[in-house]
Amino acid sequence: MKLACIAAGLLGMAACSHSRLAPRAVEPPDSEEREDARASEKRSAALQQELLALTAGQATPECHRVCELIEQICDLSQRICLIAGRHRDDPELADRCTAAEQRCHRSRDRAPAGCLCQAR
Asked: For residues 99 and 81, is the Cβ–Cβ distance under 8 A?
């Protein structure tokens, strides 16, 4: 009896495994998406340079502007990573996402202690 139950269970599992849908193929990014990721990365790097210049001086920077720059850098990071997420098999986009996330974290770390920027 035990053997019959085990056999029935194995047959049921085999039947279920065939009924699963095949995973969808991930489509390669089109040139517009790839260019969007590049442009977002370039804009984010420029914003980071502006943030570095703003926070490098002795005087306390204007917190509103610091937080605005950080928010824009991190928004661009999310945008790049959304594109990369749609094309998980693309190593270039994965690298861009990783770099963008690091840029966001570094920017948040760069905020002066007196600036209370809200993380989203």
From this structure: no
Angle at 113 between CA 45 and CA 66, to 5 degrees: 35
The whole-angstrom separation of Cα 46 and Cα 68 is 14
Distances (CA, A) of 9 to 2, 19, 58, 103: 11, 16, 72, 51
Environment class of 99 (CB within 10 Å of its CB; exposed 0-12, middle 13-18, buried 19+): middle
- 47-60 burial, b for 16+ CB within 10 Å, e for fewer? bbeebeeebeeeee
Q: What tens digit of pLDDT does each residue of 20-64 get?
A: 433 444 566 678 888 999 999 999 999 999 998 888 876 778 899
Q: Are 86 and 56 in contact (CB under 8 A)?
A: no
pTM for the model stands at: 0.71
Position 111, amino acid: A
